[in-house]
Design a protein that fits this description.
This protein has about 350 residues and is α/β, with parallel strands linked by helices. Helices cover about 55% and strands about 10% of the residues. It has helices at about 45-75, 80-105, 120-145, 155-175, 185-210, 215-245, 255-260, 300-315, and strands spanning about 5, 270-280, 285-290, 315-325. A 4-stranded mixed sheet has the order 1-4-3-2. A hairpin with a 2-residue loop joins β2 and β3 (about 285-290). α1 packs antiparallel against α4 (about 155-175). The longest helix has 30 residues, at about 45-75. The protein starts with 5 loop residues before the first strand and ends in an 18-residue tail after the last strand.
Length: about 350
């Protein structure tokens, strides 16, 4: 939701009312409070469709995990066992993604004024960390297999790996198309992508063992896949950590935002103490102090700031504090620091 507050009191402002950052805009020029319709429960709602996809993908992944685990034990293939282990983490990731998406629909309350939207970011962060644990296990098992190779039933390994590959392609297509900053679905998609690569490695290893007798292909290809997973996990970890640390959203320059806001309305003398961050995927927020010309009406300036942040920078929730000329009401050391993130 795009909500703007014009604070004109004589001391630093604070928030004591529940906020929900998503939804339609509702403005009062002087002090726009808002009511929240956090998430629709209608079956046609995109969030509802996303949750159904996650739940279906979870069930399909659990079934395939059991098949691959059985096939890995039967054939003696590390690649299949690693893929089954990865599918187990996939299933947990998909389940957590579903829970996170569901909790994000819960309304704000007195204790959690922004609702539960950030739950999806926490889950994305945990998913990324779990990938590091999985990679460590694969590397350990691969080294053991390289030192002590064992017999592998390549036929069983091949057909189970093909089945796993097809399931992963189907699930990944289901999850495709999420917003680039939706770390909840990004985490789930990352797990499925890693598992798809594991299935490809298992297929190639099965062919190499079948036609060339290369037992080392099973652990070596497992190692290569683990490196690919590690790279993707690191990117997701950085993205989710950046959001949790309330960093400036990607592609947004605070200096450019300040410059745009200074020109938003003729009554604005200065803009300072700007903070822009992201509560969850697609939910940008901002607070800013504005210094106006003496005796200027604050309402037009607040509306102009709101419109610039919404239309040019996709910020949905805005709080504006009006400061007297040359004085910052917050009394914070960095209050007057221009360009402050």
């Amino acid at each position: 939701m795009n909500t703007t507050h014009d604070h004109t009191h004589d001391q630093a402002h604070g928030h004591a009312h529940p906020h929900e950052p998503r939804g339609k805009d509702a403005h009062d020029p002087a002090h726009a409070h808002h009511d929240h319709d956090h998430a629709s429960t209608d079956v046609g709602d995109p969030g509802s469709r996303r949750r159904r996809k996650l739940l279906f993908a979870f069930g399909l992944t659990v079934v395939m995990m059991a098949v691959e685990a059985f096939g890995g034990v039967l054939s003696g293939s590390l690649a299949l066992l690693a893929d089954a282990g990865h599918m187990m983490v996939d299933a947990l990731a998909l389940l957590l993604a579903f829970v996170g998406a569901w909790m994000a629909t819960k309304p704000a309350d007195a204790r959690r004024s922004y609702g539960y939207g950030r739950m999806e970011v926490l889950i994305g962060f945990v998913n990324a960390l779990s990938q590091f644990v999985l990679v460590g296990w694969i590397i350990y098992e691969a080294i053991i297999r390289l030192m002590h190779p064992g017999a592998i039933l390549s036929g069983v390994m091949f057909f189970v790996a093909i089945a796993g590959l097809l399931v992963n392609v189907f699930v990944l297509r289901m999850l495709h198309g999420h917003a680039h900053d939706d770390v909840n679905l990004a985490g789930a998609s990352l797990h499925v992508l890693g598992d798809l690569l594991g299935s490809v490695a298992a297929v190639l290893a099965a062919l190499a063992i079948r036609w060339k007798g290369w037992l080392w292909a099973d652990p070596v290809l497992s190692l290569l896949v683990s490196l690919l997973i590690l790279n993707s996990a690191w990117r997701l970890l950085k993205l989710s950590a950046h959001i949790l640390l309330e960093g400036v959203p990607d592609g947004l320059d605070c200096a450019e935002v300040e410059k745009s806001l200074r020109g938003a309305h003729a009554s604005i003398r200065d803009i300072h103490h700007l903070h822009v961050w992201q509560l969850a995927s697609g939910s940008r927020m901002a607070t800013v102090h504005a210094e106006l010309e003496v005796s200027a009406d604050s309402a037009p300036a607040v509306i102009a700031i709101n419109e610039v942040l919404r239309d040019r920078f996709s910020v949905q929730h805005v709080t504006v504090q009006i400061d007297p000329a040359g004085e910052c009401l917050d009394q914070a050391p960095a209050c007057g620091a221009h360009g402050h993130p």
